[in-house]
Amino acid sequence: MASKPIVSDEYQYGFNDGDVGVLKFNRGLRRETVEEISRIKKEPKWMLDFRLHSLDVFMKKPMPNWGGNLSTLNFNDIVYYVKPSENQGRTWDDVPQAIKDTFERLGIPEAERKFLAGVSAQYESEVVYHSIRDDLKEKGIIFTDTDSALREYPELFREYFGTVIPPEDNKFAALNSAVWSGGSFVYIPKGIKADIPLQAYFRINSENMGQFERTLIIAEDDSFGHYVEGCTAPIYSSESLHSAVVEIIVKDRARMRYTTVQNWAPNVYNLVTKRAVAYQDATMEWVDGNIGSKLTMKYPSVYMVGEGAKGMVLSIAVAGKGQHQDTGSKMIHAAPHTTSTIVSKSISQHGGKTTYRGLVHFAPDAAESKSNVKCDTLIMDDESTSDTIPYSEVSNANVEMEHEATVTKVSEEALFYLTSRGLSEEEATRMIVMGFIEPFTRELPMEFAVEMNRLIKFEMEGAIG
Amino acid sequence: MSEMILDQASEADLKSLVEERFGHEPQWSLARRQSAAEAVLNLDWPRLERTPLKKRKLDQLHLFKAPPTPSRTAAAAPEGWAEIWLDNNQVVAVSMPEALSLQGVRLESLTAALDDPDVEKHLGRLLGQDADKIAALSGALWQGGVFLRVPARIREVVRVSIRSHATAEAGALFAKNLIICGAESHVTVTQRLATDEGVSKTLLSENTEIIVEDGGRVDFGAIQQCAPTVEGFIHRAGALGHDAVLNWSIGEFGAGLVVSDHVSHLDQPGAQTSSTTVFFGAGTQHQDYSAKSYHHAPHTTSNMVARGVMKNKARSVFTGLTQIEAGAKGSDGRQKEQTLMLSDDARADAIPSLIIDERDVYAAHAASAGPVDRAAVFYLTSRGLSEPEAERIIVHGFLAPVIDAIALPELRDEVWDAVERKIRA
């Protein structure tokens, strides 16, 4: 069978609208850079100290010697802070036209017109446009950018910030902690259900821009929320770095879902630390799609620290030419009766490489806990490769762990059946691929599912035509 | 029997020890020993992700200047079997059915076979002596082992039993075994490793290389029941020709620390390997196992199965690796690892990896860990069985599918006996 790309190598959103940044730092990372970021943001002393401490940690920590190839990543070739406009856009009219144009092409205004809760669009390093629907506000839900949260909710912010992912966790978490800017802050009070998804779009614009957004989500007892993050970025010839930190606290009986569709341009290093802590009977769900970037290293985690906590990860990774998707999940069972599920679907094509790297850990206290992990990979052509590296650590006799993985090509039998029914090989292949990722698209918010299906269908047709 | 402690030995000491003990060997062998001796002090102990060796004080090992003396003699071999007995790596007896010697089967001490060009050609091909300090020590000081060569196209199955025993004060034992199965022949090998109970620590290094030529088949079974004072480093590797078959059946029960791996290189189209590992950890045993299949050629097949039972404070790591290279089209690689946990203080890690560089393949793995099914225990105790007896039956049920699949009947029985002893321990 001839190889057919699922997502074409031509990057659809590869337009850029010139350099609109008002304030842009020189390349490279120094102590002064960090001090200057903090000064511009008029941050309290403790945050400056936190940033400087994190910078020390970052400098001391060695580069990871596993995962993808980071050898061409040059920390001195990155701009660590860009502030695109003087004021935060309160209404759509205030947003600069060039930025609007970009968002139009990404479909954000359209999305907002429909049913979105609030749009918190991070353009370069600051949140430029932010709105939140009044009914969320009435319920007491806080949905704002992280910089504003630090100013407006200082105590709440300080109580949780950096508690789930300390700077010492890994080199890139330390980097983010030193230079973070933007991101979302979500607080859902006790017993409150946010019945519409909270959405934010992120986007890298300037060449060699590093994006270091920092998201902090707190779901109080018995609450529910669904946060949706999606991103695309223009093509640039030199490397770009995206290194976010996402911390989520899900308290007793609360449920939180975090959905990402990551479609960075193929020159972006996407090195992200995402972790949630789930307390008693809480549920944390990560729905994680990785389609873009040059290299993604991202392993959404759930630390189940309360009895009866649940963790779920549902992910897809698509690696095309020059791409390496090194993704997976960590499930730490630290309390009794905890349950985790990981479903991972990977597709590699056109010389792309997907790696599933995961850990399921049962601590001695995790009696009666269960974990189920399923990883499936489709390899579309002869240049593409796939690794599956699952770790499991069991320190309790009374747990159940199950892991399954397969690596296959598109089934010739299924192709034969579909083509015998009159479908072309292209249509049949597409149908099989769509079926393969269906468990993922099914869980996306409707708009995202449509976007996802359209992207895959359009790109496949485009490349085949 | 004078001795030398490893951390007090200089390179010159090691080299003169090699000269003193192995100076009579053919030039090629002596040269390899000397180059390994030169490397010993420059190489690190094996670096194992989940088995730290630092605290084990391996450098306090006693390297005996003369090989430890044999203490036993052989019993009669089973009917139709060729059998070789080793004591402290010295061959003490070989029994060979006449029919087999007439057909050119060779079974003897490896040190006595160094003049054979096959030994020079294949020894160390799959397990080099530069990987780490133990590999280099073994390269320099290996005392003995088995050479088995079965000529091509022997019509009946050649059955060979290797019984290896060590005394408690052996210090550091390094064995090398080489098995060559000629084209289209079929060899069954069972290897038994056991040591006396003792008080002092013994390093047991056992390297086995298996060459399976085109269309040949080797069924290799091994059972390890060493004393808790033993720290074992057991490496096995096979290279498979066109349509060759290598089946591993490994039963791991003894030793305080054991690092045991077996690797299959599927070098030619149509080669097949299967492996079954049964392990049982108890007490404070630390067990680090791995099973690896490298698909270097098209239409090669591997299937690796492991089942382990963990009790007390035992710790196990099982690493599986299925690697399919680009171009190995139509290959099929599978792994399945299951662990039954009998205690909260035990720990079992599993890392079943797939590294796939080719589209046209099927690769899969499954791993699971779980406790004894309490409902089953309840059912059995309600029928009048005591709880330990119920647990015993459940362990049996868990292991039966893999143990009963062991192709070698009397090895199968010994594995069951070993399981039984571990359950009761």
Which structural class is indicated by helix and strand composition of chain B?
A: alpha/beta
Strand content of chain A: 35-45%
Task: Specify the helix fraction band of chain A.
Answer: 10-25%
Radius of gyration of chain B, rounded?
Answer: 21 Å
Order of helices and strands of chain B: EHHEEEHEHHEEEEEEEEEEEEEEEEHHH
> What about the largest sheet of chain A?
12 strands, mixed
Q: Which two chains share the most extensive interface?
A: A-B, 34 and 35 residues
Terminal CA distance of chain A: 17 Å
Mean pLDDT of chain A: 81
Write up what this structure looks like.
The complex is a heterodimer of chains A (465) and B (425). With 465 residues, chain A is of the alpha/beta class. Chain A has helices at 31-40, 45-60, 97-106, 108-114, 134-138, 146-152, 154-160, 171-179, 412-420, 425-441, 446-464, and strands spanning 23-24, 82-83, 118-123, 126-132, 142-145, 184-188, 198-203, 210-211, 214-219, 224-232, 240-242, 245-250, 255-263, 268-278, 283-290, 295-298, 301-304, 310-319, 324-333, 339-348, 353-362, 369-379, 385-394, 399-408. In chain A, the strands form three sheets. In chain A, strands 5, 6, 8, 9, 11, 12, 14, 16, 17, 19, 21 and 23 form a twelve-stranded mixed β-sheet that branches. In chain A, helix 2 packs antiparallel against helix 8 and helix 6 packs across helix 7 (154-160). The two termini of chain A are 17 Å apart. By secondary structure, chain B is of the alpha/beta class. Chain B has a domain at 6-268. In chain B, the strands form three sheets. A ten-stranded mixed β-sheet of chain B has the order 4-3-7-9-11-13-15-17-19-21, with helices on one face. A nine-stranded mixed β-sheet of chain B has the order 5-6-8-10-12-14-16-18-20, covered by helices on one side. In chain B, a hairpin with a 2-residue loop joins strand 3 (82-87) and strand 4 (90-95). In chain B, helix 2 (27-40) runs antiparallel to helix 5 (133-141) and helix 7 packs antiparallel against helix 8 (409-424). Chain B is globular and about 70 Å long. Chain B starts with a strand and ends with a helix. At the A-B interface, strand 23 and strand 24 of A face strand 20 and strand 21 of B.
